[in-house]
TrEMBL record, chain A:
The keyword Transferase applies. It comes from the Bacteria. This is N-methylglutamate synthase subunit A. The lineage of its organism: Bacteria, Pseudomonadati, Pseudomonadota, Alphaproteobacteria, Rhodobacterales. InterPro entries: GATase_2_dom (IPR017932), Ntn_hydrolases_N (IPR029055). Residues 2-295 form the Glutamine amidotransferase type-2 domain.
Automatic annotation (TrEMBL), chain B:
SUPFAM superfamilies: Alpha subunit of glutamate synthase, C-terminal domain. GO terms for molecular function: oxidoreductase activity. This is Glutamate synthase domain-containing protein 3. The lineage of its organism: Bacteria, Pseudomonadati, Pseudomonadota, Alphaproteobacteria, Rhodobacterales. InterPro entries: Glu_synth_asu_C_sf, Glu_synth_lsu_3. CDD domains: GXGXG. It comes from the Bacteria. It comes from Paracoccus versutus (Thiobacillus versutus).
Amino acid sequence: MCGIVGLFLKNQELQPKLGDLLTDMLITMTDRGPDSAGIAIYGNDGGKPKITVQSDDPETAFRGLDAALSDALGDTVGMRVIDTHAVLTLPEGTEPEARVFLAGKGIRVMGSGHAMEIFKEVGLPEQVAARFHLRQMAGSHGIGHTRMATESAVTTLGAHPFSTGADQCLVHNGSLSNHNQMRRELTQKGFAPETQNDTEVAACYISSRLAEGASLSEALEGTLQDLDGFFTFVVGTRNGFGVVRDPVACKPAVMAETEDYVAFGSEYRALANLPGIESARVWEPEPATVYFWER
Amino acid sequence: MQTIDLATTPLRDVNAALQAQASRTNQTEWVIENPKGAHAIAVGLDAPIEVTVKGSTGYYCAGMNKQATVKVTGSAGPGVAENMMSGTVVIEGDASQYAGATGHGGLLVIKGNASSRCGISMKGIDIVVFGNIGHMSAFMAQSGNLVVLGDAGDALGDSLYEARLFVRGAVKSLGSDCIEKEMRPEHVEILRDLLERAGADAKPEEFKRYGSARKLYNFHVDHAGAY
């Protein structure tokens, strides 16, 4: 199984409530994925690049990390610690150097970008949401996932969303059958996945296509030709939100759109408490059809 | 009329109350409020009662229905009226995948669209869809009637047995061993009756009939040596 939720706000006035709305949607999908949960949230675009990092021993790993990284980069680094994660605000252009520094310290990078922050952990969605104070988060759009693992171990790194490019993230319900072949091809192109997880391969595939100049829509179209298996994907970019289902479409999906938002849920239950859902246009996304919204 | 609020009453209690109705109950009208996409609402009923669900339902609404009439004012999730035996299920909105799957009898009416695998392995149920149906509908359908006022998706009636398929709109593609067949007077009569019972505004003459070519499932004496 696995549960997916997504919310793309069209009405700016709802932005302070994004975390609250997404948290309710995420918890509703607990019985589709009680192993782990995660969320990618796009907000707080302060103009500087950010890296979200994770450590199993945050007290030790994050103590003095901002000062040490500031020294290494020769400029001030900001740090906001939230449970096992920390969001580092970097001077422009220093991300590659920062990644080398963090790798040397054994600190995992969850994702990076100007707008996106990623939080994911093993545990029930309600507990994960509480640990990261997801309800208090504001933003323009966000994607969440509740995981019931099939293709790789129940670990923090195996949880969704996966981010393999700046401000890009992907969540997946399903299982891919050609991910080993695709992993080899992507590695040759310089987009090597870090884990054995099939979903990360899909995220790397989309990142590679975007890096080659494809639009989000073209990259999503490409999954239909190049990825084999079952999938409903929801992807986020700095200003966009996309959905695609494989041609067999046995993994469920429901969407709703009002003047205020576009919402995605694995089931209607996830959408049932959204404001104005009674008058929303609610539909099931067609198989092998790309949907995306950009602002 | 009995009204139950799913926001305050556990689903198991709701289903237990509905399942406890005897065939001669005088509590014949039930309303369920606040379904909010819950799974398995009004399943396993076996009494001539009428249940109206005010809103949209999740997986398997009205599954295994016998005798009862279940109406959903919103849309229904996957597997609505799965394995229905008799009675009537009416969905005012859309239905998700495998609506009416394996149904043995009764009438399922979907006033919006139905998605993929509608009527898969149907065994005697009648299904009337006012809108379109998705791919692989009526896969291995054995008996009963599937009536579609709109269009049908890919691979309609793949590996079909003896179910009758009536489609008014376009068929994207026919599945293996499914062919268009002549509409004879008896088929027009079957269709007229179904359209009338479903309350559908359509004329039987506007439809085409599809059925099994009987090349896939029938024993063919020329192939005896292969067995």
